[in-house]
Design brief:
Number of strands: 0
CATH architecture: Orthogonal Bundle
Structural class: mainly alpha
Shape: globular
Radius of gyration: 16 Å
Number of helices: 12
Helix content: 55-70%
Order of helices and strands: HHHHHHHHHHHH
CATH class: Mainly Alpha
Bound molecules: fe (ii) ion
Strand content: under 5%
């Protein structure tokens, strides 16, 4: 997919209030950082990064009354939410996307290492690596991003989120993924991404998400 096409879809996801631009950028940047750490080749990183930006695209097909429901979801509502990896996959295919790394992340991003995820109930290494990596990242970002009901931010939130990830090793999360992510955090290599902790911080357009641009963002932030 062209970066412009991804941008268009990311905008659609944001318009529907399914995600914020800052969340998209953070998960995209964490995904790149972690895949680079694993020595994944550039073309694959490019595809998985696009998928990271679009992971929840299937939520467009879930009724607003469920997505925006303030209280706890009932059984049936949650069953519907659990379909978003499938509706996302259908959307990708309808758009003519055939790259397996993209399709795999969209359809498997809620699978768990112990096989208790959804909706395909894959386990361990049956789950493609991109989706395993992404599950760690999505959880970390959910625990560290700004929410109206959580005042605890920044470093403390990150440290607590890492403890949660460690606690989920072997159950929710891929052990090597959590270890690598934790190491990246402790060596300061995620600092430029943590800059986007605050959802109010303006972010670049996703169309800028070419290799050179990512590298430039990192260099600018490291100054
Ligand atoms: Fe999701």
């Amino acid at each position: 997919m062209s970066p412009e096409k991804v941008q268009e879809l990311v905008k659609e996801i944001e318009r529907k209030d399914l995600s914020t631009a800052a969340h998209t950028w953070r998960v995209v940047l964490y995904t790149r950082a972690l895949l680079e750490e694993f020595g994944v080749e550039r073309e694959l990183i490019r595809l998985v990064t696009q998928a990271a930006a679009l992971h929840d695209i299937g939520k467009i097909d879930i009724p607003d009354r469920i997505l925006q429901k303030p209280g706890k979801l009932d059984y049936e509502e949650f069953e519907l939410i659990k379909l978003h990896p499938v509706t996302g996959l259908a959307r990708m295919i309808t758009l003519g996307v055939s790259d397996e790394p993209i399709l795999n992340l969209v359809r498997y991003h809620h699978e768990r290492w112990d096989g208790l995820g959804y909706p395909f109930i894959l386990r361990g290494e049956e789950i493609p690596m991109g989706a395993r990596v992404f599950a760690v990242i999505d959880a970390f970002d959910a625990m560290t991003s700004v929410r109206p009901y959580r005042s605890e931010l920044g470093e403390r939130a990150a440290e607590n989120a890492l403890i949660e990830l460690q606690a989920g090793i072997g159950t929710r999360y891929w052990p090597e993924g959590v270890e690598a992510f934790t190491n990246l955090y402790h060596t300061g290599k995620l600092d430029y991404i943590l800059h986007y902790f605050n959802d109010e911080v303006p972010v670049p357009a996703f169309a800028a998400a070419r290799d050179e641009e990512f590298d430039a963002i990192r260099r600018r932030s490291e100054k």
